[in-house]
Design brief:
By secondary structure, the chain is of the alpha+beta class. The chain has 14 helices and 14 strands. The two termini are about 70 Å apart.
């Protein structure tokens, strides 16, 4: 942040061009406005030592980029014959590939006095305790044969010119204030990257007795304390300002190029079949399912979660295999909410308050433990039924999370989808929900869980309440391992969502999707639900060429 300006707040709040001031209002009044800088001869733009530099800041006035020798500017004269500089601010930003955002651009108009951004410079020798005096030494000796060059010769020529025109030469032992010189009314120390300090007085070659190791030196008194990041050996150069710096607030707003598939518009020229259609009566939900409980459950289990028939053999450890229009992060949030309900159903199933539940709802479950012991457990069937119905609503991704083994080595590989490390979650990968590890095994679990019947699922659901298996039964949702898994999975899903340009959320205006996210969360979740439904069709379209089985399911 440029701390040398006295009107930094005005710069931050400005919406148009504003001059940056080094002096505060009190000192400006005392100086009578005589802060014009170098007495230009020749006029600015006519000397080879004239430069325009610019520095770009973000909305918090944190520097992003500096160019100490801008070339994209021109100079002419105004109606009074004074130099007038024309800046190309937009072009300067676009040259840095800055296309969107709000920026503050500060331009400085300098005539280098001694040194410059390229070539020989000064370095800091020492700084006073109050940090308002600094002694500078040239970085290269004048008689250095190894570094002899026209630039070095010009450096010392300009140094001697400064010394001869400063009006005061060393040794200077008078304790009175050092008078300003007749030519250089103001000199600045440029430490680079817009770290510029105003010098109010200076002495050239003032060291006495003469030091052969440092034959040339300059002592400068600054208007403000030198910043703390300026230390010994920091390089700098001296300059004069043609005019005060100017600050411009710039907002770039170019349309973003969206990468993805465009949805075609409606085809109003489509030739429709005009043959009269015979329409039957509407059927209710219960009429469609019928009265047989087994058939009802079978229908729910087959059609509530996914398309019946062909399984696509999708690798659910990589989001890009099955998430296209929906939000991977929201799908994980939904899954965790379902797990919380299942944990509630399990705990309720083990309660035996006969005052609240009919005795006809209480069943006995018998099983054999790992050491051959026989057990008999009571459970409330209504809660197990709710558990089964909720699992029936799982899509194939949620079934994979819920039933599949939690072995990391089985799903996370070194190559991965993003060529990352074995646990690089930015690769947008995920493992199944963590499972128990112990001596018990849920013997109702089988590998073909996608095709379980209602009876199989019910038997497993009851068994899992009392007998968690070693690899195939979930840890409790509040377990520390579960929390770690969820944090990592959400990070991975969020990383995927950010780069997924096909999300339906991203079809909404920015003020709805970002600025008004809390107020529009219901609508955005509706888009996620719609996207998830379309992801099923998208998956079948994507994997169509991979399917070889064409059997028709004759069960329904």
């Amino acid at each position: 942040m440029p701390t040398q300006y006295s009107n930094l707040i005005d710069i931050s709040n400005a919406t148009t061009q504003v001059s940056a001031q080094y002096f505060n209002d009190t000192d400006l009044d005392a100086l009578g406005g005589n802060v014009g800088g170098y007495m230009m001869s020749p006029l600015f733009g006519k000397s080879p030592h004239d430069r325009v530099e610019y520095h770009i800041y973000d909305p918090n006035i944190e520097r992003l980029f500096s160019n100490h020798k801008a070339e994209n500017w021109t100079i002419d004269t105004d109606s009074e014959g004074m130099p007038q500089i024309n800046l190309q601010i937009k072009e300067d930003l676009e040259a840095l590939n800055l296309t969107n955002g709000a920026y503050t651009v500060i331009y400085n108009f300098h005539r280098d006095a001694v040194g410059g951004p390229v070539g020989p410079k000064f370095k800091v020798h020492s700084i006073s305790k109050d940090r308002k005096e600094v002694r500078l030494l040239p970085t290269i000796f004048e008689d250095s044969e190894a570094n002899a060059s026209p630039e070095l010769e010009a450096f010392y020529s300009r140094f001697q010119q400064l010394k001869s025109t400063s009006g005061v030469t060393g040794p200077y032992n008078n304790l009175a204030a050092i008078p300003n010189n007749p030519l250089w009314t103001n000199i600045h120390i440029n430490f680079g990257y817009n770290r510029i300090d105003q010098a109010v007085a200076w002495l050239v070659d003032d060291v006495f007795p003469f030091d052969p190791d440092n034959p040339h030196t300059i002592l400068l008194k600054t208007y403000q304390p030198i910043p703390a990041d300026i230390v010994a050996d920091t390089k700098c150069w001296l300059l004069a300002e043609a005019t005060q710096p100017v600050s411009n607030k710039v907002i770039l707003d170019q349309p973003l190029e969206l990468i993805g598939n465009s949805i075609a518009g409606p085809n109003f020229d489509l030739s429709l079949n005009t043959t009269a259609q015979v329409q039957g009566e509407y059927k209710s939900y219960n009429q469609l399912l019928g009265i047989d409980s087994d058939i009802k459950s079978e229908l729910k289990n087959s059609f509530s979660s996914s398309l019946d028939g062909m399984k696509l053999n999708i690798d659910y450890s990589v989001f890009e295999n099955y998430v296209h229009f929906s939000s991977a992060e929201q799908r994980l949030v939904n899954f965790k909410q379902k797990l919380n309900k299942i944990n509630l159903f399990d705990s309720k199933a083990r309660e035996f308050d006969y005052s609240e539940y009919s005795t006809s709802d209480i069943y006995i479950y018998e099983y054999t433990g790992s050491h051959g012991s026989k057990y008999a457990k009571q459970y409330q069937k209504s809660w197990v039924t709710q558990k089964v119905e909720l699992i029936n609503q799982f899509d194939d991704f949620e079934k994979w999370l819920y039933f599949e083994s939690g072995s990391n080595s089985k799903y996370i590989t070194k190559s991965g989808s993003r060529e990352g490390g074995s646990h690089d979650w930015s690769r947008s990968t995920i493992t199944p929900f963590p499972k128990y590890s112990g001596s018990y095994k849920n013997d109702r679990w089988t590998d073909d869980y996608y095709d379980w019947s209602v009876d199989q699922l019910f038997d497993w659901a009851v068994h899992s309440i009392f007998m968690p298996g070693p690899n195939y039964e979930l840890l409790h949702v509040t377990h520390s391992t579960s929390n770690t898994w969820y944090t990592q999975a959400i990070a991975s899903a969020s990383a995927f969502d950010k780069q997924n340009q096909n999300m339906l959320r991203k079809t909404t205006p920015e003020f709805i999707n970002d600025g008004g996210k809390d107020d529009n969360e219901t609508y955005l979740r509706f888009l996620d639900m719609t996207g998830q439904a379309h992801d099923i069709w998208w998956s079948y379209a994507r994997y169509f060429t991979d399917m070889s089985k064409r059997d028709h399911n004759t069960n329904f």
